[in-house]
Write a structure and sequence with these properties.
With 71 residues, this protein is of the alpha+beta class. It is built from two helices and two strands; from the N terminus they run ββαα. β1 and β2 form a beta hairpin.
C-alpha cells in the first residue's frame, strides 16, 4: 500500500477500485483506492493469501476488500 505517490499516467495503468471512509478517534480518513499496474524494480510483494495473514489496520482491510472484489 502506498499512501501518496506521484505517478506518470502516460506510462502507468491506473484503475480506481473505489472509495471508503474510515473513522479514527480524532479524525476521519477519506480514501481513494487505486490499482496501479507498473513494475517497480527491487520491490518484493505479498500474494493476496499472504496479505490476509498480516496485521493490518481496519483502513488497510477496507482497501484490501476493494482489491479482492476487483480481482
Amino acid at each position: 500500500f502506498i499512501q501518496e505517490e506521484n505517478f506518470d499516467s502516460e506510462d502507468t495503468n491506473i484503475t480506481q477500485l473505489g472509495e471508503f471512509v474510515h473513522h479514527y478517534t480524532h479524525f476521519r480518513l477519506d480514501a481513494k483506492v487505486l490499482l496501479i499496474n507498473k513494475k517497480i524494480d527491487n520491490q518484493s510483494y505479498f500474494s493476496l493469501e499472504q496479505i490476509d495473514t498480516l496485521a493490518l489496520s481496519g483502513a488497510d482491510r477496507k482497501a484490501l476488500e476493494l482489491l479482492k472484489a476487483y480481482t
